[in-house]
Amino acid sequence: MATIAVGNEALKQPERLIDLVIDFKNRCNIEEKIGSRYGLSPREVMTIFLLNNISMSSKELSMRLGVSTSRGSRIIGGLLDRGLLVSEQDADDRRSSIIRLSSAGKEHLKDLSRIKDTCERDFLEKLDTRQIEQVRQGMKLLLQVV
């Protein structure tokens, strides 16, 4: 049993919430499942999902991926080489580039989204409507405080 401090109170909990969230993510492991099908790393899959209908600078993309700009550049370079991204010089800052999905990247996104939907459906079909809503509300509550 884990003990955590909340304000001035120590709460005893059978399991830490963060451990449950991590365990859930590990069980689903969407990025890895999807990536193995297409030979993409988890970060490359995340990049494709992040660029859904938007474009952004390579620096912003690296920040959203939680990687260094040099690691972000390697991820972008690999996806550019595969024809999944398009890079254009930023009109406002010639030292920066704007990244977006290519038409091939958009097709990959559709396939990746279908796989993601199947993964979610596999989890949710084991729950009834009330339980699904409880999970959804609990996750929304957690995200409000983070």
TrEMBL record:
Annotated InterPro entries: HTH_MarR-typ (IPR000835), MarR/SlyA-like (IPR039422), WH-like_DNA-bd_sf (IPR036388), WH_DNA-bd_sf (IPR036390)
A biological-process GO annotation: response to stress
Xref: Pfam families: MarR_2
GO MF, one example: DNA-binding transcription factor activity
Domain HTH marR-type: 1-144
Protein name as annotated: HTH marR-type domain-containing protein
Species name: Marispirochaeta aestuarii
